[in-house]
Write a structure and sequence with these properties.
Layout lengths: L1 H7 L44 E7 L3 E2 L1 E2 L13 E7 L4 E3 L8 E3 L8 E6 L2 E3 L29 E3 L3 E5 L2 E3 L105 E4 L4 E5 L2 E3 L1 E2 L1
Parallel strand pairs: 1-4, 2-5, 3-6, 4-7, 5-8, 6-9, 7-10, 8-11, 9-12, 10-13, 11-14, 12-15
Length: 296
């Protein structure tokens, strides 16, 4: 009786009637199937019993913004649950916005729970957008706009074990837009707006920046290309006069974007790539795998 009480708790003086399966002290799980839910109960019913609940969660299709606590399932019981999230090979867990993590483990779990993530696929944040090219107006033209920062892939706010057999990557930073340029064309005077910066790598990739705004008589700069899952997008070229250099390329996974070209207008700065993990002091890494980007 003392062993049962040590495993499952209860109120002194102890009675076997405290320990019916599903009654609050003994989880209703397959390992405890020999323990009755009512009626006659014996010490022998407890051989091989457990006071923990195992919750396996499998991500078998591409997913976005996966919250482990929200997906914990109906069998969860605070303080006695062991949650294991497995990302299958070939599966991507991504993000729908830069501020939103691809996967998060919040502090809402009880301190007695355990959380383990086994990543056999790709967990990747969203890429930052490319900056717009510098416009041309009468008088001084505008510089290129800076790119947007890449998102962060995984957020952890309680002790968690991550076995990374795949890749975890922050989003790439967006490339900066190019400044406006003066000159070119048959008269050597046709102005050109700057090309947009390329979007950063990510799932989803960042959008390419637009060419700069056009005043009468100016050529429109080209937009930057959007980022893709493995790579940043190229910066857009100058307007039809061909004067000036392009916008900056978006950064690859977790990498910074490039600055736009400094034409007559100043260049937009390339933005920083995102973190592969936020909350690393909470994490134990039995297997590092491929981790791209910063760490916080």
């Amino acid at each position: 009786m003392e062993t049962i009480a040590a495993n499952f708790g209860g109120t002194v003086p102890h009675s076997l009637s405290e320990y019916y399966r599903g009654g609050g002290l003994v989880p209703n799980v397959p390992a405890n199937s020999a323990i009755p839910t009512s009626g006659q109960i014996a010490i022998g019913n407890f051989y091989g019993a457990t006071n923990r609940i195992s919750i396996p969660l499998t991500i078998s299709t591409n997913s976005f913004n996966y919250d482990v606590y929200t997906n914990r399932g109906p069998t969860y019981a605070a303080g006695i649950s062991d949650i294991t999230v497995t990302v299958n090979p070939g599966v991507t867990v991504g993000s729908t916005s830069v501020p939103t993590y691809a996967m998060l483990v919040p502090s809402a779990f009880d301190g007695g729970d355990t959380v383990t993530i086994i990543n056999n696929g790709l967990i990747q944040a969203m890429g930052g957008d490319g900056g717009n090219g510098g416009g041309f107006t009468p008088g001084p033209g505008a510089p290129g706009a800076p790119g947007g920062v890449g998102g962060s892939a995984v957020y952890v706010n309680r002790p968690t074990t991550i076995t990374n057999n795949g890749t975890i990557a922050g989003g790439g930073g967006g490339g900066g837009g190019a400044g406006y340029a003066i000159g070119g064309g048959p008269s050597k005077a046709q102005p050109s707006t700057g090309g947009g910066g390329g979007g950063g790598a990510g799932t989803n990739g960042g959008s390419g920046g637009s060419g700069g705004s056009v005043a009468p008589g100016a050529g429109q700069g080209q937009p930057g290309s959007p980022g893709t899952s493995p790579a940043g997008g190229a910066g857009g070229g100058p307007g039809p006069s061909g004067v000036g250099g392009p916008g900056g390329a978006g950064g690859g996974r977790g990498a910074a974007g490039s600055a736009g070209t400094a034409n007559n207008g100043g260049p937009g700065a390339g933005a920083a790539g995102g973190n592969y993990i936020v909350g690393n002091p909470f994490v134990t890494w039995p297997v590092d795998g491929t981790r791209q980007g910063g760490v916080a």
